[in-house]
Amino acid sequence: MHPPPHPTPAPKFEILVHRGEFLAIYKHRFASLSHLATSHSAMMPPAQPLTASLSLAPLFFLLFFFSGPVVCWRPWPNAQPNSTDFLFGGSKKYEGSSEFVKLKYHMGPVLTANITVYPIWYGKWQSSQKRIIREFIGSISAPDTKAPSVAGWWKTVRLYTDQTGANISGTVHIGEEKNDRFYSHGKSLTRLSVQSVIKSAVSASTRPLPVNPKSGVYLLLTSDDVYVQDFCNNVCGFHYFTFPSIVGYTLPYAWVGNSAKLCPGVCAYPFAVPGYIPGLKAVKSPNDDVGVDAMISVIAHEIAELATNPLVNAWYAGQDPVFPVEIADLCEGIYGTGGGGSYTGQMLNDKDGATYNMYGIRRRFLVQWVWNHLVNYCTGPNALDQ
User: Fold this and answer.
1) What is the similarity comment for this entry (predicted)?
2) Contact 77, 266 (CB under 8 A)
3) Cβ distance 380 to 151 under 8 Å?
4) Quick check: 361 and 135 in contact, CB under 8 A?
5) What is the pLDDT, as a whole number, of residue 9?
6) Among 219, 124, 211, 214, which residue's Cα sits nearest to residue 177?
7) In 10 A of CB 262, how many CB atoms?
8) Whole-angstrom Cα distance, residue 256 to residue 270?
9) Are 341 and 94 in contact, with CB atoms under 8 Å apart?
10) Which of 23, 112, 143, 223 has a 20 to 30 Å separation from 261 between CA atoms?
11) C-alpha to C-alpha distance for 115 and 112, rounded to whole angstroms
12) Minimal CA–CA distance to 283: which of 295, 297, 296, 293?
């Protein structure tokens, strides 16, 4: 295994883990404490500032872990906060706008040319599962689909521009695909060995994937019997770019795993719920495949962020590029009007009981909303005010 071209401490790789997904449960709680602590201190006798601060320490600790609903929610069993999380704690929305989130453009490239997604199917995949994912990707720029549509969802992503004013491409299609059904790098992958899988795909002796650093998105999809570093503990997918020292090229890529067997209660939420959180009820997946239906929203999350921040130097919030908060991080867990905390928002329910919020070419999908920097809140095609 080759080291990165510029060696960095292990925590630097946290950029691969969308802390906007798994740490937001702490972010909102931390930001809510100042108000709660002020209310509490109003009932206490006057005291010196230091004494008052010390007296609130136990309350602070308890509130940090047991305060109420949160935004950008996913039921992570273990999560640790970082500086960016504290900064954006309460500014993430209960589906309403926020004047505190300052998503900025940092002058890096975005994907303005026609986007080609190159799926790498790692492990054992059923044909029916591949069809669901292929149709979702094909629906991103499909014309004349029934509203609310996946194409309508992508319109928000297209609002983002580069320094010349060029918008994100409106064309997203599937390119060549690669199958790795024999687990060439094993059934347990690290974040760096994920890049090795991509290297194998672009350098294969037969039918290698094209090398397309300008507008290609390399999508590594692992089957339900493959574990990837931090999967289920604090990540369901991540994106970054490949290191030339490993792959030979700088290519934007994403990994998304099928959690059906490993952790459906975490990464397949709301189609599955964790047993340790009482009161939550799972909803029926729209394509009768809990793992793959859940992957769709994560795939959407990663493609949206790859388009707007492919080299991690374009669109993100926060001052720390190691922990950027990107356009999908800001809306994790929000699928409809009113969403926030553990409430997904208003979704659609069909006669067969399936839950979804947008249509593809022929199928239905449940896809999280993304941040609209022009209006400063999360938006989606199924919003009631559209």
Assistant:
1) Belongs to the EXORDIUM family.
2) yes
3) no
4) yes
5) 34
6) 219
7) 19
8) 17
9) yes
10) 23
11) 8
12) 293
